[in-house]
Design a protein that fits this description.
With about 110 residues, the protein is of the alpha+beta class. The protein has 5 helices and 6 strands. The structure holds zinc ion (2 copies).
Length: about 110
């Protein structure tokens, strides 16, 4: 029995990390999973409260969070996903070719 841990009330108020389920979460996944378009605004309050996109919001601890470009924190799932959605070199070549042809009017 460890009295220090047992006496820490905060541990029960804090959300556990969704990945390791051991440590306390310190951040949320910033990956945008849902774009929401505002339909209409009744007043300025509605306008300022609008949420243009919903993020994954997976609670994570420092150890499990993956930093992307030193700006965003992603959960391991979305961190792997963001790497997969980058075009592979062959695709990039095709894209460049298309853009070049378009610009030069071939
Ligand atoms: Zn964790
Ligand atoms: Zn995520």
């Amino acid at each position: 029995m460890n009295p220090k841990i047992d006496n820490d009330e905060n541990i029960f108020r804090k959300v556990k990390c969704g990945i390791c389920k051991k440590r306390v979460s310190t951040r949320l996944c910033d990956f945008v999973v849902d774009y929401r378009q505002p339909m209409f605004f009744r007043d300025y309050h509605d306008f300022s409260e609008q949420q243009l996109h919903g993020t994954c919001d997976m609670p994570m601890c420092d150890e499990c969070a993956k930093s992307y470009n030193n700006i965003y924190d992603f959960c391991p799932f979305h961190y792997g996903f963001i790497k997969k959605i980058q075009p592979i070199p062959e695709m990039k070549r095709a894209i460049t070719e298309y853009v070049t042809k378009d610009l030069l009017n071939f």
